[in-house]
């Protein structure tokens, strides 16, 4: 809005001749506040993931008691008995659709920022082994699980797999392994991935 600039009298030394143009206003633009908030949420997570004025539920769920003695053999047993080629043949010869449960990887990665602890997974693992024994696989590995287990949950991702395997011996585990970024968040050079 400077008159020299508006009237096209500005030269290459216009800014150095008018230092008042470089002074920054002390008033913060509202859009900057929004950007700072979004940056904080991206880096640190949502400050209040749940409503703070809500009272906790008084409902106490009753969990079924499931014995590991009653686990029905599943696709993992076929893999162990017949090997990879026998496993592949059994899949090809299977006439019904086969399902993979992604709760232990994609569901909580998408809905809970991958913050589901091994403790939480172990609580539902016996149910999966008992009532979901016909699943082709459980996708419980890959994506952001490795990074989040180490960086945010302070858990050993390998120990998680071992503990889940003890509780779910009959369903194969599946991993999401992306092409160019493997289990990271950005593309890696080919010599890192291959």
From TrEMBL:
Signal peptide: none annotated. The keyword Nucleotide-binding does not apply. Keywords: Pyruvate. Gene3D superfamilies: Aldolase class I. Residues 97-194 form the Pyruvate carboxyltransferase domain. GO terms for cellular component: cytoplasm. It comes from Myxobolus squamalis. This is Pyruvate carboxylase, mitochondrial (Trinotate prediction). The lineage of its organism: Eukaryota, Metazoa, Cnidaria, Myxozoa, Myxosporea. The keyword Cell membrane does not apply.
């Amino acid at each position: 809005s400077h008159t020299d600039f508006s009237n096209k009298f500005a030269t290459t030394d216009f800014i150095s001749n008018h230092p008042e143009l470089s002074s920054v206003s002390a008033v913060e633009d509202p859009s900057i506040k929004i950007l700072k908030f979004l940056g904080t949420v991206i880096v640190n997570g949502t400050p209040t993931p749940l409503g703070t004025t809500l009272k906790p539920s008084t409902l106490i769920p009753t969990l079924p008691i499931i014995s590991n003695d009653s686990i029905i053999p599943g696709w993992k047993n076929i893999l162990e008995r017949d090997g990879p080629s026998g496993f592949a043949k059994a899949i090809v010869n299977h006439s019904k659709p086969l399902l993979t449960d992604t709760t232990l990887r994609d569901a909580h990665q998408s809905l809970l920022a991958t913050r589901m602890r091994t403790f939480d997974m172990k609580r539902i693992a016996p149910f999966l082994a008992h009532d979901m024994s016909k699943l082709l696989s459980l996708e419980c590995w890959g994506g952001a699980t490795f990074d989040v287990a180490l960086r945010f949950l302070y858990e050993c991702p390998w120990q998680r797999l071992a503990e889940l395997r003890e509780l779910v011996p009959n369903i194969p585990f599946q991993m999401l392994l992306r092409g160019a970024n493997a289990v990271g968040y950005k593309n890696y050079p080919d010599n890192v991935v291959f």
